[in-house]
What we know:
This protein has 16 helices and 5 strands. Helix content is 44%, strand content 7%. It has a domain at 12-116: DNA-3-methyladenine glycosylase AlkA, N-terminal domain (TATA-Binding Protein, 2-Layer Sandwich), CATH 3.30.310.20.
Amino acid sequence: MNVQWVRGEMPTTLKIKPPSDYLLGRDVCSYGYFLLAPNRWDVKRRVFSRAMSLARGPALIEVKQKPVAGNPLAIDVSRSLTRPERAELERQIRRMFRLDESAGQIAEFHKIDPRWRVSGRGRVFRSPTLFEDVLKTVTSCNVQWPSTVHMNIRLCEVLGDRVASGPETSAPHSFPSTKKIASTRPQTLRARCRVGYRDQRIVELARLFRTNPRNGGIDQEWLEDPSTSDESVHDFLIELPGIGPYAAANIMQLLGRYTRLPLDTESVRHGRTVLGLKGPSTKIMKRVKSHFAPFGAHAFRSYWFELWTFYESRHGPSWMWERDSTGKLFTASALNAD
DNA sequence: GGTAGACCTGGACGC
DNA sequence: GCGTCCAGGTCTACC
Length: 338
C-alpha cells in the first residue's frame, strides 16, 4: 500500500535517527501486534504503515529504512503537520518501535542471554499508546488468533477515524480513541466489533483511561515511571476490568517490565514441545516460569524470542508473514502438528 | 489457595 | 446448510 496523499494538504517526510543497532524489519516483526489493525507490514516493500491519531485528525504514515542497522527511519506522512503534531507523532513512533531502548540496553540483555546476540533481537514491537496495547491484550484473551485479528479490524473500521484520502473505499482507519470507546454502547461493541463478553470491560477500561488518577483513573506516568516497582504495577493492573494474570504480565512487558511471563496455553505448548516438560498444564506453567527465572529482569524477552524462533522455524522469517495468512498458522493444532 | 463453570466467538467436524 | 463441539483467559462462587 502506498501512502494516499490527502488532497489539498502537503505531504511531510520525517527522518528519525534510531539506535545504532535498530533494524526495521527485525524489530517491527518481533511481536504479533505488528499484524493487528491498524498496523500493516508490506512484505514485498518491507514498509510499515498505519493511520496515526493526531490533534487535527488521523494521518497515514509509511515507515521505511535501508536494511542496514542504525540507518535513519524515513517516515512519509500523508498530510502536513503542525509543530505539536510533529512532536506527538515522533513520540508515538518512538514508543511503538521502542527507540528509547538504546543499543547498550539491548547489549545488556544479550549479556544475560547470548543466544540472541547474532540475530540482534531484543526489542519487542508495541503500540503507539498504552491504551491500544491494553485493548489489544484484552482482545487476545480467551480467543484464538484469527478472532483477535478480526476484533482489531472491526474496532478500527467501526470506531476509528477514517483517513481522508479521496474516493478510495478502503481508506485506512486509526485505532479508536479512549473518548470514542468510552462513549460507545457495549451492545454496539458486541454486535459490530464482535468482542463478545468483553464489551462492558472495554468501555470501562476506556473510561478509566479518561478518569483523573486521583479519582481512580489509570495513571500512565506512574505506570511508566521506572521508580514504580513491578509489584505495584502488577497489583494495579490486575484490578482493572478484563485484566487477569496473563493480561497483567503482558501489559507489563509492553511497559518495558520484562520480569514476569504472560503464561497461557502457548506457554504450555512451548513447555511440552520445545522444553520437553511433562505433566498437567498447571504444573507445566509453573515449570516454564522457573525455567526462565534465571534470566531475571530479562525473563520475558528470553521466553518470547524462544517462542518467536519456534514460530519462525515453522513458518519462515516473521518479516515474510502476511496478516491474512497467519490466522490459520497460529492455532494450537497447527503448532502442535509435526 | 485452588477449582468448577459461565462467559462469547469462530472454526472444525459430522450429518 | 445446520447443529454440535471445542479452544481460549477472566471472573465469580464455592470449598
